[in-house]
Design a protein that fits this description.
The protein is mainly alpha-helical. It has 2 domains: 57 residues, no CATH class; 63 residues, no CATH class. The chain is 64% helix and 0% strand.
Length: 121
C-alpha cells in the first residue's frame, strides 16, 4: 500500500477532487479482483484452508443503510486523509499523528456497536 501511494493524503485529496485516476484504479482493480475471486469460489465450491465450505450471507438491499453509511465513511476518509487499511500502514511508517485518527475510528466502531439496534437498517 505504501509503494502504490495509497496511503498518501495527496493521492486521496486528488481522488476526492476528481483530479486523478490513481486511487480509482487501485480501488477499481481491488473491486474487480474481489468480484472475480468471489465468483470463482462460488462456481468451483472452493474450500477454506481448514477444509470448511466458504459461505456468503445474503445482504440486506436497503438503500438508506448503504447511502448514509457510505456518506459517513467517505466524509471520515476525506477529513482524515486515510481509509482504515492505510491507517495501519501509516502507523508502521512512523506517522504517529494517525493514532488520533485510528482512535477515532475505533471509538466510532464502538459507538456503532452500542447504538446498532437503535439505528435504521
Amino acid at each position: 500500500m505504501y509503494k502504490s501511494q495509497a496511503v498518501s493524503w495527496f493521492r486521496i485529496y486528488e481522488m476526492f477532487r476528481f483530479e486523478s485516476f490513481h486511487m480509482y484504479g487501485i480501488i477499481g482493480s481491488a473491486l474487480a479482483l474481489g468480484v472475480l475471486f468471489t465468483q470463482l469460489i462460488k462456481k468451483y465450491k472452493i474450500k477454506s484452508f481448514a477444509g470448511d465450505e466458504i459461505k456468503f450471507a445474503a445482504k440486506n438491499k436497503s438503500v438508506p443503510r448503504y447511502l448514509f453509511g457510505g456518506i459517513i465513511f467517505g466524509l471520515g476518509w476525506a477529513l482524515a486523509g486515510a481509509c482504515p487499511g492505510p491507517m495501519f500502514v501509516l502507523v508502521g511508517t512512523g506517522a504517529w499523528s494517525i493514532l488520533i485518527v485510528l482512535a477515532g475510528a475505533v471509538l466510532g466502531t464502538l459507538l456503532y456497536g452500542i447504538f446498532r439496534n437503535k439505528l435504521p437498517h
